């Protein structure tokens, strides 16, 4: 069914072709022109358009190769001075390029969903039909789809313990779009713990320093460094210029449209305090630069202390560190460490989203996409997912402000959350799926034990069990006839039924199929919950 | 009213119902983002302007002037040519439009009024009408289909969620209503409700009222009138007690007649003050002067016109008589069969046959009228998925020239692709081994619909092959329309080829469906007792 679903999603993407597109459309058209016409030493210096090239070199190379195809569609696309050029062919080409590159995302989603045994189709649908990506990539216009495809490829390689491939893909990803630096610490910590230490301890506390493998570290380092060399090598003599383009700290704390993060609350508190102080007669600086004006600029807070990039950096790091330390310890456990890895990935993306400098609202996708993958792997993650996916995609609504897109946005979100709310709970509803309750499980358990006994003993045992049950039922029957009051009936039955199971004292009575307190514990206790297939877990030992 | 043995105890498959429903609605909005007919094409614009103009007329003039040529109401410019319910509907929307944006319904001044917000408003009116009339009726029919066959069924096409999705995703109606801009969903929705009351609840009076309302929304519903008439008439003669049979017949017939007449009177009452008014409205509804067909229609006359210029051979009078005779001839076998060998399953087939006969042979046919045939076929799809699916693809394809004119190429391709994909997913649900292209294979499809039945494998092979070549033909014709420059002497050669190609299909389908209907046995539609299961 994967083919059909991909076809359906692709068809929906085609629908969006002539709709509203943001200035990012012109940004990418300009980059096509810049990379096509200039020699590479001028790529990061050109300022013909205000939309200068500010993505890492691999992306520039991608635009360069795309520009050669673009020429066939319309030679006017690749002229630098053609600012805001949007002929039909330009639109067709740019939209098509996003749709075609998205097949990499579909491939990534498939490689991830193949690792899941229960609900792999569901996770494929959730990933491929992600409304956020549809909105940001195919209406608003950006190239996030294939980048997340690379991320998913890297994650799937990590889960199958192909650490080198995973590191390679992640390094490539970083050189396409440096926003993924947010989750780089997770990769560093996890790679070190899981790959560079060859011995794993199960208790998860003690780090076996003696098993540190320098060879593995060198292999890893070589992979990453060579990717970076390939990318930044041609730009070696203009690195400061490249970096000043990549990390524009002059853009201000919040994006033109505030991302729904901590700083949005901070800014609004500042605004309120400013108004309050003025009302109360305190003198405060009244800068008229409005933060919501849609202008990208630095902004001084009036009452609260102004925030510098260093503060955001420290806060982000501080919020990440607990998760990273926990990952270091969990990384020891071969069985579940990949699950912890994806969880930590989501968590760190959230931290960066919450406290980062100049965060875009689109960055919520970095949380939602790994979380969609997690949603089928544990009940807690599933619950979190249905909640965050609703809020997160709703927070993307202002991105597409034209009124005629409202209904498309609403129904896209509704379709998505209908899928999430219909299918994710049913994945964890064990009793409904098999039609069994705890008594069935108990019965099976007893049957299995009886089978191990000799025939004679089994018959005796059956007799004993039956006599206990008979006694209890008679007890129940007497309680019924003695106590005719309807109000007490229910409680009485309950109390007898609990006492029924006390004398049996079988080990099975402690089995609780519905304990779901901590999904991590559940997963480690109950083999039914282990959905990830460990392919190479032992080969790499 | 027939009561089920245990009306509350039935379960339907709801797995994909909600996501599918929302997706179908999303698709409607995706199509709605595209231009409508007559978008920025002065001076006459298109159907969108017609609808807007009717709002203007109904809001600004008195009821008596709606259908008359007055100083305020120029009938030459998109005069009202649908029955009163359409006018009331326009009036209702017009009132809302007057409240939201008075400029859009100003008398005369608003001609050719176009703006983004007005477009969004108009799209919402279609969308809401669609939800209220069509989607609800479709849901009821699909729920009933699964409810009747009970729990242990194997026909995957009768699962409520699958049936609903396939029902609502039919590309033709979405493209015409939400893309081209019309309110077919209202009349077709009312028609579906009428059919639902007949095939599911057996409440003949309600069915009659619904159908009369549908007829009063669009006179094209006359295509469906014969089967309703025949079926309900036959039911009057059914299961009579020996004593007092004539009074029974008259009693039953009177019940229906009163329903029809009362509904008609209520609908027409505000408009009519004299006999002359009625004729004026009827004259507006049946414009005999407009010719035998409009544009390129895939019916018999248009195809014959290629070889014999009918306009020069026959005058209008003769043409009408000929059309009438041919239509009756083509529709009679289905009607007579329905009357003599009544069976509830035959009712839908008879609807298909009669409306197809009307489409192929009757006078003044639009290419959009194929929807009137397609909707009964959508209803029939769970019974005979392969042929119905084929028909639905052809019917959408036959509207390609119209859609191209409106700039709806991308929606046409995408909705068709999505429809095929969902159909393919359905097959995959029934048979794990089915591939992406197994919808081409009649054997797989019929096995999915009914695993126990035996089919003639030679015929199935033949059908599969034909379906494959038919798809090929559609593909190449579409390809030619888009990319090949037609010769200067025949600028319309591709639309004409498309309509002839579709027409050939429709004639074969008429024969096939008539054969299907006749081969069904008699089965009196008496109250079914659903056994507790």
From TrEMBL, chain A:
Compartmental location: Endoplasmic reticulum membrane
Origin: domain of life: Eukaryota
Enzyme class: transferase
Membrane topology classification: Multi-pass membrane protein
Region (Disordered): 491-517
Record keywords, A-Z: Endoplasmic reticulum, Glycosyltransferase, Membrane, Transferase, Transmembrane, Transmembrane helix
Transmembrane residue ranges: 92-109, 121-139, 146-173, 179-196, 217-236, 307-328, 340-357, 363-379, 384-401, 407-424
GO molecular function terms noted in the UniProt entry: dolichyl pyrophosphate Glc1Man9GlcNAc2 alpha-1,3-glucosyltransferase activity
Keyword Transmembrane helix: yes
InterPro entries: Glyco_trans_ALG6/ALG8 (IPR004856)
Composition skew (Polar residues), residue ranges: 502-517
Main location: endoplasmic reticulum
EC number: 2.4.1.-
Pfam families for this protein: Alg6_Alg8
Biased composition (Low complexity): 491-501
Stated family: Belongs to the ALG6/ALG8 glucosyltransferase family.
Name of the protein: Alpha-1,3-glucosyltransferase
Automatic annotation (TrEMBL), chain B:
GO annotations of cellular component type: endoplasmic reticulum membrane
Pfam families assigned: Alg6_Alg8
Top-level EC class: transferase
Transmembrane intervals: 131-150, 162-181, 193-215, 253-272, 319-340, 347-366, 386-404, 409-430, 467-484, 493-513
Keywords linked to the UniProt accession: Endoplasmic reticulum, Glycosyltransferase, Membrane, Transferase, Transmembrane, Transmembrane helix
Membrane topology, as annotated: Multi-pass membrane protein
GO molecular function: dolichyl pyrophosphate Man9GlcNAc2 alpha-1,3-glucosyltransferase activity
Family membership noted in the UniProt record: Belongs to the ALG6/ALG8 glucosyltransferase family.
Protein name in the entry: Alpha-1,3-glucosyltransferase
Species: Euphydryas editha
Record lineage: Eukaryota, Metazoa, Ecdysozoa, Arthropoda, Hexapoda
């Amino acid at each position: 069914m994967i083919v059909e679903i991909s076809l359906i999603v692709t068809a929906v993407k085609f629908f969006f072709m002539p709709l509203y597109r943001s200035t990012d459309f012109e940004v990418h058209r300009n980059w096509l022109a810049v990379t096509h016409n200039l020699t590479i030493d001028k790529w990061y210096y050109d300022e013909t358009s205000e939309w200068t090239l500010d993505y890492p070199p691999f992306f520039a190379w991608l635009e360069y190769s795309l520009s050669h195809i673009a020429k066939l569609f319309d030679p006017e696309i690749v002229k630098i001075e053609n600012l805001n050029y949007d002929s039909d062919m330009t639109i067709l080409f740019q939209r098509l390029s996003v749709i075609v590159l998205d097949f990499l995302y579909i491939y990534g989603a498939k490689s991830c969903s193949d690792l899941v045994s229960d609900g792999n189709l569901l996770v494929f649908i959730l990933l491929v039909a992600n409304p956020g990506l549809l909105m940001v990539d195919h209406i608003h216009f950006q190239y996030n789809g294939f980048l997340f495809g690379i991320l998913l490829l890297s994650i799937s390689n990590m889960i199958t313990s192909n650490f080198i491939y995973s590191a390679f893909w992640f390094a490539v990803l970083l050189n396409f779009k440096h926003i993924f630096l947010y989750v780089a610490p997770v990769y560093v910590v996890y790679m070190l713990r899981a790959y560079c230490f060859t011995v794993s301890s199960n208790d998860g506390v003690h780090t076996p320093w003696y098993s540190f493998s320098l060879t593995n570290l060198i292999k890893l380092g070589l992979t990453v460094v060579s990717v970076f060399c390939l990318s930044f090598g041609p730009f070696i003599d203009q690195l400061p210029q490249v970096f000043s383009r990549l990390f524009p700290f002059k853009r201000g704390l919040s994006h033109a449209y505030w991302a729904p993060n901590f700083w949005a609350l901070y800014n609004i508190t500042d605004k309120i305090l400013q108004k309050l102080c003025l009302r109360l007669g305190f003198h405060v600086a009244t800068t008229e630069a409005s933060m919501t004006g849609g202008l990208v600029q630095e902004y001084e807070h009036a009452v609260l202390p102004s925030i510098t990039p260093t503060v955001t950096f420290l806060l982000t790091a501080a919020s990440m560190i607990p998760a990273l330390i926990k990952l270091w310890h969990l990384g020891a456990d071969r069985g579940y460490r990949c699950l912890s890895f994806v969880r930590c990935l989501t968590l760190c993306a959230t931290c960066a989203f919450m406290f980062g400098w100049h965060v875009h609202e689109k960055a919520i996708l970095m949380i939602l996409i790994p979380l969609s993958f997690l949603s089928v792997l544990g009940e807690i993650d599933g619950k979190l997912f249905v909640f965050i996916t609703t809020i997160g995609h709703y927070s993307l609504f202002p991105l597409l402000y034209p009124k005629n897109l409202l209904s498309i946005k609403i129904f896209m979100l509704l379709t998505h959350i209908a899928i999430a709310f219909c299918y994710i709970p049913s994945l964890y509803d064990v009793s409904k799926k098999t039609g069994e309750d705890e008594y069935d499980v108990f019965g099976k358990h007893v049957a299995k034990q009886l089978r191990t006994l000799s025939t004679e003993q089994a018959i005796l045992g059956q007799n004993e069990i039956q006599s206990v049950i008979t006694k209890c039922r008679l007890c129940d029957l007497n309680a019924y006839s003695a106590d005719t009051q309807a109000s007490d009936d229910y409680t009485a039955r309950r109390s007898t039924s609990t006492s029924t199971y006390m004398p049996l004292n079988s080990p099975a009575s402690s089995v609780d199929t519905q304990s779901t307190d901590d999904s991590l514990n559940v997963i480690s206790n109950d083999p039914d919950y282990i959905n990830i297939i460990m392919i190479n877990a032992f080969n790499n030992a | 009213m027939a009561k089920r043995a245990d009306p509350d105890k039935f379960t339907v498959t709801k797995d994909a119902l909600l996501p599918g429903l929302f997706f179908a609605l999303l698709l409607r909005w995706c199509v709605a983002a595209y231009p409508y007919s007559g978008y920025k094409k002065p001076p006459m614009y298109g159907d969108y302007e017609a609808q807007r103009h009717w709002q203007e007329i109904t809001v600004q003039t008195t009821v008596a002037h709606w259908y008359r040529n007055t100083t305020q109401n120029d009938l030459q410019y998109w005069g009202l040519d649908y029955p009163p319910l359409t006018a009331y509907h326009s009036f209702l929307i017009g009132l809302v439009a007057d409240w939201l944006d008075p400029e859009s319904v100003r008398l005369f001044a608003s001609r050719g009024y176009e703006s983004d917000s007005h477009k969004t408003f108009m799209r919402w009116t279609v969308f809401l009408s669609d939800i209220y009339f069509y989607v609800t009726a479709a849901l009821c029919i699909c729920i009933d289909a699964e409810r009747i066959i009970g729990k242990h069924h194997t026909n995957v096409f009768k699962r409520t969620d699958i049936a609903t999705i396939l029902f609502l995703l039919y590309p033709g109606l979405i493209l015409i209503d939400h893309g081209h801009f019309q309110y077919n969903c209202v009349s077709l929705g009312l028609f579906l409700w009428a059919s639902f009351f007949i095939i599911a609840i057996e409440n003949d009076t309600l069915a009659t009222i619904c159908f009369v309302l549908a007829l009063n929304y669009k006179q094209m519903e006359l295509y469906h009138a014969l089967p309703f008439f025949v079926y309900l008439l036959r039911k009057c003669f059914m299961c009579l007690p020996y004593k007092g049979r004539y009074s029974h017949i008259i009693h039953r017939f009177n019940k229906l007649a009163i329903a029809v007449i009362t509904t008609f009177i209520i609908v027409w009452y505000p408009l009519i003050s004299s006999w002359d008014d009625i004729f004026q409205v009827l004259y507006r509804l049946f414009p005999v002067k407009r010719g035998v067909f409009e544009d390129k229609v895939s019916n018999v006359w248009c195809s014959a016109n290629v070889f014999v210029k009918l306009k020069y051979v026959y005058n209008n009078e003769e043409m009408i008589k000929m059309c009438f005779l041919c239509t009756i001839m083509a529709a009679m076998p289905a009607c007579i069969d329905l009357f003599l060998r009544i069976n509830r399953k035959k009712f839908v087939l008879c609807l298909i046959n009669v409306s197809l006969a009307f489409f192929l042979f009757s006078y003044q046919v639009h290419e959009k009228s194929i929807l009137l045939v397609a909707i009964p076929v959508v209803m029939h799809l769970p019974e005979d998925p392969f042929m119905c699916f084929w028909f639905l693809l052809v019917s959408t394809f036959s509207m390609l020239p119209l859609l191209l004119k409106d700039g709806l190429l991308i929606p046409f391709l995408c909705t068709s692709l999505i429809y095929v994909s969902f159909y393919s997913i359905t097959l995959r649900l029934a048979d794990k081994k089915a591939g992406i292209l197994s919808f081409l294979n009649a054997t797989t499809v019929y096995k999915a619909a009914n695993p126990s039945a035996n089919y003639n494998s030679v015929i199935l092979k033949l059908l599969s092959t034909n379906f494959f070549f038919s798809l090929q033909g559609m593909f190449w014709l579409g390809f030619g329309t888009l990319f090949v420059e037609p010769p200067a002497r025949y600028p319309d050669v591709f639309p004409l080829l498309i309509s002839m190609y579709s027409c050939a299909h429709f004639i074969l389908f008429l024969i096939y469906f008539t054969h299907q209907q006749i081969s069904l046995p008699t089965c009196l539609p008496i109250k079914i007792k659903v056994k507790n299961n």
